[in-house]
Amino acid sequence: MDRRTEEGTRVRLCVQGYLARMKQSSARVVPLTGDASDRRYFRVQPAKGAAYVMAVHAQPFDVKKLPFINVADLFSTMGVPVPAIIGHAADLGVLALEDLGDVTLQADLGTAEDEEHARRYREAVGIIDVIQRRGAELKSIKYLPYQISFDSTKLMWELEFFYRHFLEGYRGVTVSPAEREALTEEFTTIVEELAAEPTVLCHRDYHSRNLMVHDDKLFAIDFQDARMGPDTYDLVSLLRDSYVDLSERTVNELMAYFLALRGRRDEAGEFKARFDLMALQRNMKALGTFGYQTLARGNTVYIQYMPRTLAYVQANLARHERFARLHEILARNIDELR
After folding, report:
1. Which residues have a Cβ under 8 Å from the Cβ of 168 and sit 6 or more positions away?
2. Distances (CA, A) of 55 to 66, 77, 86, 173, 269
3. How many helices (H) and strands (E) does the chain have?
4. Given this model, what pLDDT does residue 1 score?
5. What pLDDT score does 327 carry?
6. DSSP 3-state helix, strand, coil percentages of the chain (rounded to 5)?
7. Using CA atoms, how far apart are residues 277 and 120, in angstroms rounded to an integer?
8. Nearest to 291 by CA among 276, 277, 310
9. What integer pLDDT is reported at residue 273 of this predicted model?
């Protein structure tokens, strides 16, 4: 039995085991498109009652220590809409969640009128404001995100992930020792500056595929990796999103809206420079993830999002003179960055 077949058997037994415990063995079970994690998702429609989503983890978990449950409690307390937790079977690695439907913000944008599109994004920016504002008010060691942060070590790890899995892995590039040393120096400068920025509570993966449209409002999902980080982080995730195109005018308007919510209108120039720095780091990390998913996990769906992400990187490298050396090195090895 190969690894994929063995894993499929394990997941099937977990699903069947949970349904048997719930006396729902006759329920209809439909696989859902997953994320870049090792969790598997299913929609369960019992013979009686409402449908729900079953998240099957890679291994059993301790309910008291599972990050998803801890962060869901935090976000719910602060008023951020998240799916309700319906039940669990910790020994099976199963978590049952409220079914929010299938319409992500990404999918909704394909059918929304311009006015609706703008409203959705203002709502999304408003949620970031709530996370930052209420996150500061509710800070407590009982919540896991306050014990984890984007420090220089984590930020550097992510840039090295880009180097290994996109540059070397996906693109097959071999840089010279001198170039490698220069890249390390440039990466170090970026991460040290980011690690020194104002720190707030961050969702950590706040983009159009992790916002669900349900009952005419946005719900946040995939928040289990929430942590402390730069105050630009979630806004960058939303506005420099690998999955959707936003005009520069829209980006600037939403950035201004965010600063107005935060009472920081007079910081626009300084904030934009920090926003661009954060975007460069996050988009490079995203390319590393896409390369890893493609090569290591055989998940080719992410290839289609590489051109947009490379365009973001190119724009930021070209926009700021401070990135000239980094731009030169990367452009020699990645055609799209020339």
Report:
1. 174
2. 13, 22, 11, 37, 42
3. 11, 9
4. 35
5. 98
6. 55, 15, 30
7. 26
8. 310
9. 97
d(CA 164, CA 184): 13
User: What one-character DSSP code corresponds to residue 83?
Assistant: P
- Per-residue pLDDT at 111: 85
Residues (pLDDT < 50) of the chain are 1-2
Element (H, E) at 18: helix 3-21
Question: Quick one: pLDDT at residue 110?
Answer: 84
Q: Which residues are CB-neighbours of 180 under 8 A, at least 6 positions away?
A: none
Residue with tokens 């010279």: 176
Helix (H, G, I), strand (E, B) or coil at 56: strand
Q: Which residue has the tokens 């993966």?
A: 205
Beta-strand runs (E) in the chain:
28-32, 40-45, 52-56, 85-89, 94-98, 199-202, 211-214, 217-220, 227-230
0.90 exceeded by pTM: yes
- Give the pLDDT confidence score for residue 3 in this predicted structure: 52
Reading the block at residue 255, the tokens are 């950035």
3-class DSSP string for 186-207:
HHHHHHHHHHCCCEEEECCCCC
Q: What are phi and psi of 88, to 5 degrees?
A: -160, 160
Amino acid at 146: Y
Listed residue (67, 69, 68, 203) closest to 130, CA to CA: 203
DSSP 280-330: HHHHHHHHHHHHHHHHTS--GGGGGGHHHHHHHHHHHHHH-GGGHHHHHHH
DSSP code for 166: I
Residue 149's Cβ-count burial label (10 Å; 0-12, 13-18, 19+) is middle
Return phi, psi of residue 219, to 5°.
-120, 140
The two tokens of residue 217 are 């409002």
Which position has the token pair 């409203």? Answer: 119
The SS3 call for residue 219 is strand
Sequence-distant (≥ 6) Cβ neighbours of residue 278 within 8 angstroms: 194, 197, 230, 232, 233, 236
∠ CA 246-335-166, rounded to 5°: 80
Distance, in Å, from the CA atom of 224 to the CA atom of 228, rounded to the nearest integer, reads 13
- pLDDT of amino acid 4: 63
